Amino acid sequence: MLNFVFRMFSLGNACLPAEGMQAIPRQLAALPPNSIRLRARVARVGPGAATLSTGEELIANSVVVAVEGRAAAELLGDTISLTGQSTTCFYFPASLSPITQPLLVLNGDGRGPINNLCVPTIAAPSYGPGDKSLVSVTVLGTGNDPDRLLSEVRAQLGEWFGTVAHDWRHLRTYSIPYALTAQSPPALNVPERPVRWQSGIYVCGDHRDNASIQGAMVSGRRAAEAVLKDLK
Ligand SMILES: Cc1cc2nc3c(=O)[nH]c(=O)nc-3n(C[C@H](O)[C@H](O)[C@H](O)COP(=O)(O)OP(=O)(O)OC[C@H]3O[C@@H](n4cnc5c(N)ncnc54)[C@H](O)[C@@H]3O)c2cc1C
User: Fold this and answer.
1) Given Cys at both, which of 7, 84, 85, 89 links 174, Cβ 3.0 to 4.6 Å?
2) pTM of the shown model
3) CATH of domain 85-181
4) CB 40: neighbour CB atoms within 10 A?
5) Candidates 2.60.40.10, 3.40.630.30, 3.50.50.60, 2.60.40.1120; correct CATH number of 37-83+183-231?
6) Which residue minimizes the CA distance to atom 47 of ligand 1?
7) pLDDT at 92
8) CB of residue 211 inside a 6 A radius of ligand 1
9) Confidence of residue 28 (pLDDT cuts 50, 70, 90)
């Protein structure tokens, strides 16, 4: 994973869609009408069919299960990765940005709750109202006491940036129990897991490659290629 992340940051630029991460699924939603059914939870899959939680059955030549690891395990069986990494994201509007460049600030102290921090408005001004900078703080895990975690985060921001951080209003906290597939060693000893599950059923998602948007997308491509090959 370290090699992958270093390679990506070395070869290309880190970027954010100007219209937010939602811009990625919105491109899918622009497919021809009736290509996508929204708000439809799949309860079961089998060769040639997926059954929605409403009981409705959808018939198809190929079924591709493109859900996160834990949900894939529920639909396909528990040999798919079940463990996830949780995260908590804190947001603060700031009159004065603590940094001036579009950098990802990593915790080099090895102590305190903050794993990393960035100011997305430096890279993508559309992420803020214009007169304020948006400070985004990431903590690994969700903790048991959100108020205590927030005050520990605030204390660390004060240590890093001084009194300027005391004026930042707390805007929002998002606690995400399953942010991405957990990939502690030796999870990536086989870098690419199979996308053919059984005849007529395929699987993709970050749990098939590595836990990232790149991993999710490249596994989707591998699944699509497998479907096309098998349909020939
Ligand atoms: C805060 C945060 C920051 C991140 N930052 C980065 C980053 O900077 N760079 C990066 O590369 N990655 C980042 N990631 C990780 C990245 O978002 C994931 O690796 C990626 O989204 C995984 O894609 P996926 O398609 O496998 O699963 P998901 O994006 O989780 O999509 C799976 C979808 O399946 C749906 N679903 C589940 N069960 C069912 C069901 N039964 N029926 C129908 N639908 C179902 C879910 O609702 C979900 O919409 C971040 C993640 C988080 C939470």
Assistant:
1) 89
2) 0.91
3) 3.90.660.50
4) 12
5) 3.50.50.60
6) 67
7) 97
8) yes
9) confident
